[in-house]
Amino acid sequence: MFRTRIIPVAFTVAIILTGFAVAQAPAQPKVDELRKQLDTIADGFQFKLGYSLHHLKTKERLDRLGDEKFPTDSTLKVAIMCAAMEKVERGEIGYYDERPLLKEDRNAGGFFYSYQVGTSILLKEALHQMVAVSDNTATLMVMRWIGGAEVVNQWLDRHGLKTTRLLAHHPLSEVWKRDEAETSKIVESLKQWGMGVTTPNEMRMLMEMILEGKAGTAAASDEMHRVLNHQYHDQGIASQIPPWVVVASKSGRSAHSQSDMAIVHSPSGIYVLTIFTNESKDTRRGWQNELSQAIRAISRAVWRHYHPNEKWSPPAGVEKY
Predict the structure, then answer these.
(1) Fewer beta carbons within 10 angstroms: which end of the chain, N or C?
(2) Torsion, Cα of 182, 187, 191, 195 (10° steps)
(3) Is 265 helix (H, G, I), strand (E, B) or coil?
(4) How many CA atoms lie within 13 A of 138 on its CB side?
(5) Strand partners, 266
(6) How much is the pTM?
(7) Domain boundaries, the chain
């Protein structure tokens, strides 16, 4: 009788607890459904679009054309920052060192372009302007400061990013000293890719290195993450995420390509998303450009997939900003 009484009670309790657990545990989103949704978005545009996604908590990974080559545009400035911070950590240059702005460094666009030649600028200021504002004059200053494209490409090689390359050289006077064949190769690469070339997967890896403290020392990675948190150009991935969520990002654009990559500190867990586009005929600037629309649509779909109960959406009129 004793056993007969205990077994039903234990069985009943187990059923109740099991039912409670099932009721409380949220249904895990199906990653294949997200893949289908993202690919449908990409297929709706008449240009090349690749993305790479890694949700660190769920361990879900998705990519489309993840290993295909795309122009980096200004997203490659993150790699330039990494190479510069490595030199700071080695003591080869100081984060608060000053150097004068040279005439050869002044490039159309950016805040530093309006500075007088000879103005002293801190390395920290140049790095922040290069990444947060995408200032091209600051970028050329940093490239000269650290030793040019070769230094950046060597850093990429050592960190396992074999496809990603900085193709733009500065100062250019050094390029013309090379033999004709090498110079011609550099010029042709610039015509094809612009500033640099990469893949969606490799740039996701780069952002994850910074997130995980592996893009250099833990202290350097922490500082670079903070710089990425201060992004001025936030009309892409970040625009589809509530403003109270921290998004560390860097975007880039040229006439026929746009890109964006972000570390999103979301309530569902951190995820890293990179989106690259190319071969578009829409050269309009601003919110209505089809490349911008595609990047926002991918970001919006990812956010909503992992936060189905979140009621926030971009408010009416946001396109003015």
Answers:
(1) N
(2) 90
(3) strand
(4) 25
(5) 269
(6) 0.88
(7) 28-308
Please name the residue ranges forming H helices in 44-147. 77-90, 123-128, 136-146
Cα dihedral 114, 117, 120, 121 sign:
positive
Q: pLDDT digit string (tens) for 97-120?
A: 999 999 999 887 789 999 999 999
pLDDT-based confidence at residue 174 (cuts at 50, 70, 90): low
Distance CA 70, CA 49 (A): 9
The pLDDT value recorded for residue 190 is: 86
Q: Is 278 exposed, middle or buried (0-12, 13-18, 19+ CB in 10 A)?
A: buried
3-state class (DSSP) for residue 23: helix
CA 287, CA 93: separation in Å to the nearest integer?
40
Q: Residues 241-277: pLDDT tens digits?
A: 999 999 999 999 999 999 999 999 999 999 999 999 9
Q: Which residue has tokens 């071969």?
A: 279
Sole residue written with tokens 């991935």: 237
pLDDT digits (tens, 9 = 90+) for 130-144: 999 999 999 999 999
Mean pLDDT (the chain) is: 89
What superfamily would CATH give domain 28-308?
Answer: DD-peptidase/beta-lactamase superfamily (3.40.710.10)
Residues 39 and 64: their CA atoms lie apart, in Å, by 8
Q: Using alpha carbons, select from 136, 64, 141 the residue that is nearest to residue 99.
A: 141
